[in-house]
């Protein structure tokens, strides 16, 4: 052992020494043309020969659109680099277009702005000059977004053939449009053998709409062409944009040795055939809405993957084999044929979905398909297999399940062959389990597992992208004129504004929330502080703002008679950042100075990751309490992903207590998701201006878990089941002299619902 250590130390020292020498020589000669501005750059790029190198000087390059083109050779590529990595930034309205042969780009950082045209990095100078044998490596694109969340762009578009995109760090794409797209528009883009490897695909927040894919290869239009793109050794972390983390839409692509970490979505073989999905790792750690692999089309191979802790159901299940459309048009669903899923190790995952999406249109069940030698191990859930249609076209062989798991049923009858129930002993290495008795099932662990450390760039810092409350300092606020306004004004992200006195705080100005703020009562007060105000709304959530309110009473009695007053209001402009709103232990009284006073008022193009309301009382309110119905274009877009209401009372409310709206038939998103527990509604919804004439209006909600509720003297509970297979359940509900639950469809559960 000692010998080994000293040898390693010697190796380490000699490696350092070598590194130093090479850095010094590089600095000395700086073999290339150092350019300090765009004019010098343009002069340098106009006459490039093989082996030439352009070096961007350190500093910030604002509104810089680079065209980098020429004809290098395999031995002597033409290089665009930077003076020092991590010290050259492209900001504002910048981008790069690369064209020609053997062009090599490295070290660029795009941030603080957005691209003025369709993409940030394009592997083509223009329609005529595509890239072939080019490489983009060690580049960063961070939070480079327009202000409108539904303005569409790409971050990277790969055209041409034989290009490589590797060791890049892409994080924080928030608007519509794929992060990285392989384009197959012309013959010159197909059979491309592109290599996409060792990239770090960081946080991509929920878009709440289609168009939030992280990687797409092809489009339905060219999906029967071969792309031959290889995607390997990439790390996908919290890529939550939509249902498809990866959307493969062409033939003969390979996805191997990638890691998907706690990402809400799936690797989807959406269009095209002969895809290989091999040796990938899905570490979902039981996070909500995480998914695995979704199979559509012909001759797909899914083997030796590792899937752990995946909770998503339906299209974002762990393993999803879809039904197809007979004679499907290119943009719908081709039947699954001749596909094989083998040697996958599936541990602690909740949903295997067979014939998923079966409906009148998608009626073609999988045929000539095999599911062989996989381990499905989940000792906590017996019913992991859901069969939506006839699975006799799938041949099952030598699969192993944990003893508790029920075998899949075909036409109601449990399969007799193809599965063995067995207790398995696992050994663990690098956080990955392996079965002692079935060592060939699961990934080949001799290959490196992509993670934060061995992907992306080493020289660029990684920010924490989560919205975190209470991470800053405490600002104590006694009574005073606009005391809270002033405290928020001097606050920093994560700060806590603590109201240290009971009784009334009066705010004469609307309080803008620019970042993550907590406003709470001091813990030792005998009576709660109360806030009154006179502007249209008390709190305006700006883009980037998130708010927690705790232990405070709110009253509308001092407000002016403005139509549409509210306690909390989102920006009336597009919010590119998702927000969070938490309200705990608060009372809202007498919001009644005009006829439509709301608690929360949201605008179109705003999206809440979550709204949590706990232990609150809402009394005497003329308008709506939580009305999230501003996305009415019916394209699967909505205003909130997770809505949680627990231990609350709603009394004498003119509008709705809650309205959630998601319209249209798009299936790329998961929400809204409602958790409504232990809450009562008394005299709600009667105002004639309440267009729903309802206590609650749930339109297109995907999951609603509603328990221990009491409705009294209130208007109806309005359901509209519109897309997917929504899971809507009422349990332990009392309706007392109350209008009933009204729905367009009876596919929802009522357990112990009593009417008096
Ligand atoms: Ca999609």
How would you describe the overall organization of this protein?
- Helix content is 6%, strand content 41%.
- It is globular.
- It folds into two domains: 27-435, Pectate Lyase C-like, CATH 2.160.20; 474-755, 3 Solenoid (Pectate Lyase C-like).
- The N and C termini lie far apart (78 Å).
- Strand 46, helix 3 (483-489) and strand 47 form a beta-alpha-beta unit.
- With 756 residues, the chain is mostly beta strands.
- The chain contains three helices and 71 strands.
- It has a 17-stranded parallel sheet that branches. Strands 1-2-5-8-12-15-18-21-24-27-30-33-36-39 form a 14-stranded parallel sheet, covered by helices on one side. It has a 14-stranded parallel sheet with strand order 3-6-9-13-16-19-22-25-28-31-34-37-40-43, with no helix packed on it.
Q: How large a portion of the residues is in β-strands, by DSSP E?
A: 35-45%
Q: What is the name of the CATH topology of the largest domain?
A: Pectate Lyase C-like
Find the count of extended strands (DSSP E, 2+ residues).
71
What is the general shape?
globular
Estimated structural class:
mainly beta
What is the CATH architecture term of the largest domain?
3 Solenoid
Radius of gyration: 28 Å
Distance between the termini: 78 Å
Domain unit count: 2
* Assembly classification: single chain
Q: DSSP helix count?
A: 3
Main sheet overview: 17 strands, parallel
By CATH, the superfamily of the largest domain comes out as: Single-stranded right-handed beta-helix, Pectin lyase-like
Q: What percent of the residues sit in helical stretches (DSSP H or I)?
A: under 10%
The ligands found in this model are:
calcium ion
What is the residue-mean pLDDT, rounded to a whole number?
94
What is the CATH top level name of the largest domain?
Answer: Mainly Beta
List segments where confidence is low: pLDDT < 50 over at least 5 consecutive residues. Answer: 1-29
């Amino acid at each position: 052992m000692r010998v080994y250590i000293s040898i390693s130390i010697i190796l380490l020292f000699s490696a350092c020494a070598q590194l130093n020498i090479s850095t010094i020589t590089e600095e000395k000669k700086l073999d290339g043309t150092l350019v300090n501005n765009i004019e010098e750059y343009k002069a340098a790029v106009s006459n490039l020969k093989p082996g030439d190198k352009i070096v961007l000087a350190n500093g910030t390059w604002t509104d810089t659109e680079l065209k980098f083109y020429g004809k290098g050779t395999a031995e002597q590529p033409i290089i665009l680099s930077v003076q020092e990595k991590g010290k050259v930034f492209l900001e504002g309205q910048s981008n790069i277009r690369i064209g020609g042969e053997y062009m090599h780009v490295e070290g660029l950082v795009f941030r603080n702005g957005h691209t003025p045209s369709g993409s940030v990095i394009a592997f083509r100078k223009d329609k005529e000059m595509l890239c072939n044998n080019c490489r983009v490596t060690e580049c960063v694109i961070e939070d480079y977004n327009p202000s409108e969340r539904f303005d569409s762009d790409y971050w990277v578009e790969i055209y041409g053939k034989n290009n490589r995109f590797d060791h890049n760090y892409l994080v924080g794409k928030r608007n519509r449009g794929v992060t990285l797209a392989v384009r197959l528009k012309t013959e010159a883009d197909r059979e491309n053998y592109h290599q996409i490897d060792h990239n770090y695909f960081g946080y991509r927040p929920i878009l709440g709409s289609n168009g939030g894919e992280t990687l797409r290869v092809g489009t339905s239009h060219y999906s029967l062409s071969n792309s031959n793109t290889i995607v390997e050794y990439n790390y996908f972390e919290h890529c939550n944009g939509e249902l498809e983390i990866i959307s493969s839409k062409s033939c003969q692509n390979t996805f191997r040795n990638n890691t998907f970490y706690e990402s809400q979505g799936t690797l989807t073989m959406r269009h095209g055939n002969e895809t290989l999905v091999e040796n990938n790792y899905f570490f979902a750690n039981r996070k909500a809405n995480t998914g695995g692999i979704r199979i559509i089309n012909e001759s797909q191979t899914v083997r030796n993957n590792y899937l752990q802790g995946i909770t998503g159901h339906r299209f974002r299940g762990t393993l999803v084999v879809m039904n197809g459309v007979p004679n499907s048009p290119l943009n719908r669903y081709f039947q699954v044929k001749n596909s094989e899923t083998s040697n996958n190790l599936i541990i602690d995952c909740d949903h295997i979905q067979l014939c998923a999406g079966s409906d009148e249109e998608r009626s073609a069940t999988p045929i000539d398909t095999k599911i062989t030698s996989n381990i499905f191990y989940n000792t906590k859930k017996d019913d992991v297999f859901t069969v939506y249609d006839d699975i006799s076209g799938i041949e099952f062989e030598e699969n192993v399940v944990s003893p508790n798991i029920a075998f899949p049923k075909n036409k109601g009858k449990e399969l007799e062959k193809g599965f063995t129930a067995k207790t398995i002993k696992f050994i663990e290495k690098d956080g990955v389990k392996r079965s002692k008795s079935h060592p060939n099932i699961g990934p080949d662990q001799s290959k490196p597992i992509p993670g934060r450390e061995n992907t992306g760039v080493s020289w660029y810092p990684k920010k924490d992208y989560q919205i975190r409350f209470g991470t800053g300092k405490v600002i104590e606020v006694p009574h005073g004129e606009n005391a809270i306004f002033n405290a928020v004004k001097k606050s920093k992200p994560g700060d806590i504004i603590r109201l240290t006195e009971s009784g009334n705080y009066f705010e004469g100005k609307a309080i803008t929330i620019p970042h993550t703020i907590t406003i709470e009562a001091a813990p030792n007060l005998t009576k709660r502080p109360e806030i009154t105000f006179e502007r249209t709304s008390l709190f305006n959530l700006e883009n980037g703002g998130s708010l927690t309110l705790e232990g405070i009473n709110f009253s509308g009695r001092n407000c002016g008679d403005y139509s549409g007053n509210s306690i909390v209001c989102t920006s009336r402009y597009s919010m590119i950042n998702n927000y969070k709103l938490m309200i705990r232990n608060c009372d809202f009284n007498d919001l009644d100075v005009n006829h439509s006073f709301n608690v929360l008022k949201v605008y179109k193009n705003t999206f809440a990751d979550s709204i949590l309301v706990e232990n609150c009382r809402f009394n005497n309110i003329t308008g709506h309490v939580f009305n999230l119905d501003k996305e009415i274009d019916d394209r699967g877009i909505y205003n909130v992903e997770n809505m949680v209401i627990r231990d609350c009372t709603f009394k004498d409310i003119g509008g709705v207590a809650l309205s959630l709206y998601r319209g249209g038939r798009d299936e790329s998103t998961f929400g809204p998701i409602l958790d409504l527990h232990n809450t009562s509604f008394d005299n709600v919804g009667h105002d004639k201006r309440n267009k729903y004439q309802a206590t609650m209006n749930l339109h297109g909600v995907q999951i609603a878990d509603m328990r221990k509720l009491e409705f009294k003297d209130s208007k109806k509970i309005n359901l509209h089941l519109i897309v997917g297979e929504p899971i809507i359940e009422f349990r332990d509900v009392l309706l007392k002299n109350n209008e009933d639950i009204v729905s367009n469809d009876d596919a929802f559960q009522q357990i112990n619902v009593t009417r008096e």
